[in-house]
Amino acid sequence: LGGYPSGAASSPEYEPLAEPGTGGTVAESLMLDGLVLGRGHWAAAYRQSQGPRREALRLLCKSSIVTARELSDDLTVISQEHIDECVSIAGEMLQTWPLDMWARQPEEAKKFFEARLTALYQRKFGEQKG
């Protein structure tokens, strides 16, 4: 039976990678590109992404703009609009410097990102007041 306890392979509750007492949370997480992805919105966005969007999300994660906790936490809830805004900013960042440069300078990456996000929100919410 390949190391599975008797009958466990067909049991939906059986989590072969789960640590005892964790309720299966380790097995529910997925490792992708060196990142631990839970079931929250950031993780779902990362899993579903490809091409330039994946590269932009990788930048957000590797520079800790999106934290490891936000990625691995099953309960992270973020609007799709905010995720798209962040991906758009990260895409701009990648036009300035390659991913490895930003990853080596996470504080600089965060400053650049926060300045762009602040400007975006000032435009967005300034127009609504108008």
The overall strand count is 2
Strand order of the largest sheet: 1-2
What kind of sheet is the major sheet? 2 strands, antiparallel
Helix content percent band: 55-70%
Q: Calculate the mean pLDDT score and round it.
A: 81
Please tally the helical runs, counting DSSP H or I stretches of 4 or more residues.
7
* SSE arrangement, N to C: HEEHHHHHH
Q: Give the structural class.
A: mainly alpha
- Percentage of residues in strands: under 5%
Shape: globular
Whole-angstrom Rg? 19 Å
Low-confidence stretches: 1-27
Kindly, what is the distance between the CA atoms of the first and last residues, rounded to a whole number of angstroms?
68 Å
What quaternary form is this?
Answer: single chain
List keywords for this structure.
two-stranded antiparallel ribbon; mainly alpha; single chain
